[in-house]
Amino acid sequence: MKTNVTQVMVDEHQLILRMIALVEHNTALLEKGRFRNWQFYLDAVDFIRNYADRFHHAKEEDVLFTALIKNGMPEKQSPIEAMHMEHDQGRAHVRALEDAAQKALDAETGQTAIIIEHARGYAALLRGHIAKEDDILYPLAERVLPEEVRDDMLAGYQVAEERTPGLEDKYRKMVEGHEEQVNK
Ligand SMILES: [Fe+2]
Ligand SMILES: [Fe+2]
């Protein structure tokens, strides 16, 4: 049995998917004119940027994808390139979402349609992205990566975790807090 190097990433997807479900839920209410909590979107941006992107995507880009490339997967015109592009597309949605949510919070009008567009766009992009990783890329990584690189990969993940102590806890609590608002 080889050392597993993707389960930790699958587990992180679960928390990201919970935030995406919140974004979808609250954005559906926003479309009906029944949601005006702009701070929620700034929290979502904070979560996506720091948990999904700087933490999770950085582990993928710096450790997992790097290991796949070193072990024979092409860097260009490959699943790796596609995943990199989707990370970048996500970042563009997040910048636009942040800008519009901040303006809405400052009582600038006309931001709702922009928030809806980028919230929906990000949610759809990331759902598809996570499905591709969980169902295709990660299982492929488990098949092709040799055992001798796996301890170093886990150490690489550990470095990312130690760089940001308490991060997982902070963002789990943020998600739980917004879930409680939904269920109230
Ligand atoms: Fe990814
Ligand atoms: Fe991922």
Q: What's this model, at a glance?
A:
This protein has 184 residues and is mostly helical.
Ions, cofactors and other ligands present here are: fe (ii) ion
Low-confidence stretches: none
Shape: elongated
Number of helices: 6
CATH architectural name:
Up-down Bundle
Strand segment tally: 0
Rg result: 18 Å
What is the percentage of strand-forming residues? under 5%
Structure notes:
- The structure is a single chain.
- The chain has 184 residues and is an all-alpha fold.
- The protein is 81% helix and 0% strand.
- It has a single domain, classed as Up-down Bundle (Four Helix Bundle (Hemerythrin (Met), subunit A)).
- The longest helix is centred in the N-terminal third of the chain and has 33 residues, at 38-70.
- The chain is elongated.
